[in-house]
Amino acid sequence: MSRPRTRIQQKNSEAILEAALEVFSAYGFRGATLDQIAEVAGLSKPNLLYYFPSKEAMHQALLTRLLDTWLDPLREMDAEGEPVAEILGYVRRKVELSRDFPRESRLFANEILQGAPRMREAIEGDLKRLVDEKSVILTRWMEEGRIARLPPAHLIFSIWALTQHYADFDMQVRAVLGPEHDPFAEAGDYLDMLFRKLLAV
Amino acid sequence: MSRPRTRIQQKNSEAILEAALEVFSAYGFRGATLDQIAEVAGLSKPNLLYYFPSKEAMHQALLTRLLDTWLDPLREMDAEGEPVAEILGYVRRKVELSRDFPRESRLFANEILQGAPRMREAIEGDLKRLVDEKSVILTRWMEEGRIARLPPAHLIFSIWALTQHYADFDMQVRAVLGPEHDPFAEAGDYLDMLFRKLLAV
DNA sequence: GTCTATACTCTGATAGAC
DNA sequence: GTCTATCAGAGTATAGAC
User: Fold this and answer.
1) C5 C1' – B106 CA distance, angstroms?
2) What pTM was estimated for this model as a whole?
């Protein structure tokens, strides 16, 4: 997608992507319609297609922008830091992402769930590379006896599964907990405790 | 959905639901088309609609059948059994469900992800009731000092999140692990160890 | 019970006026 | 840059022959 030049282009492009995120994350790629997105964005349908060549292009623009946001917290895990603090920091950042960007989490979940037809290279490339890289660090920490010995990739999967669950299955979590609860606040404390215990040597 | 009378009706209904599961779980409700389902089922499109009044009805039939399968493993957790064994048994059964019925898991995930438009009452009714009931048992075990003190609903969420992740995000898990690995075998061992450690007093 | 043909609606995308 | 009008194709569902 080419970068918009004027301020009004910038503003409309943003409004469209915001609306597209709202609709794609709630209904999936096929379930979303341009009519819905246009409605949410407050623009006409042809006007949407003036800014983006196709529905596909809107979705692609969102995914591209999403992947970095999604991987950044793991990138920040520092080989030179204190192992438990680094991992718990990663967990905390992922909980915050789920709390602050649940739609992004659901967009991502929708895509993987359906076999990642529009993200396959990113998953097999950037994402796998980053996990491999961080697995080396985790393994070294384990060998040094600073955290418990666990399969590193599965440890990372655990962090993804547990933190993203609160965004992706939000409806179910709230239905089960009832209205008095703050799922993300509780998740933050619970997962901190869980991983502290899991990582203890 | 009315129960089929003849053997041929039984057989075709089954073939349609099997095909519908294949397609709905892979593409979501809206993304799935009757053409695809008819193709997979080996029947004509109008013939599908002879057995089910609408696309919606096929989806509903799958969801209704699914919920019991999905909740049974939790139902089996026995208040009179040994706490750690009961919980680990539940985890093991959920891993087996993910391994043996990944399409059902993805169908369910798709539905919750989109706010459960066709399952809301079941989530707020049967599912919540069962979790509440089992939470009482878990809490008693905690008060008796037989397992670690944890928020019971979040403990159950952990089991759901971790086990279903291997079915729902299968594509990502396999991409990261590489072709040499058996995700579900590893998940079984890893999660057994994880919950053993988490529940230890 | 199953098929062919088709009605009708929705949806993504384009044309062209302003 | 934005809108009205509209097209072409896909998609759900029905009619009616056999």
Assistant:
1) 36
2) 0.96
CATH 3.40.50.1970 for domain A60-199, yes or no, is no
d(CA A16, CA A49): 10
The DSSP H or E segment spanning A170 is: helix A170-177
Query: How large is the average pLDDT for residues B56-73?
Result: 96
Asked if residue B51 has pLDDT above 80, the reply is yes
**Residue B1: per-residue pLDDT:** 44
Task: Spell out which residues of chain A touch residue B162, defining contact as CB-CB under 8 Å.
Answer: 158, 161-162
The reply to whether the CB atom of residue B20 sits less than 7 A from any atom in nucleic acid chain D is no
Domain A1-53 has CATH 3.50.50.60: no
pLDDT digits (tens, 9 = 90+) for B3-24: 556 888 889 999 999 999 999 9
Q: How far, in Å, are A27, A38, A61, A105, B95 from residue B174 at the CA level?
A: 26, 37, 25, 20, 16
CA quadruple A79, A85, A90, A93: dihedral sign = negative
| Three-class SS state of A201 | coil
Is residue A189 over pLDDT 80?
yes
Per DSSP, the three-state class of A126 is helix
Option in B115, B150, B171 nearest A116 (CB): B171
Q: What pLDDT shows up at residue A1?
A: 45
Interface of A with B in 113-132 (CB under 8 A): 113-116, 120, 123-124, 127-128, 131
Chain B: residue whose CA lies nearest to A133: B176
Chain B positions touching A197 (Cβ under 8 A) are 148, 197-198
Amino acid at A98: S
Mean pLDDT of B31-57: 96
Cβ-Cβ contacts under 8 Å, B154 against chain A: 186-187, 190
A189: closest chain B residue by CA? B151
Domains of chain A by residue range: 1-53, 60-199
Average model confidence (pLDDT) for chain A?
96
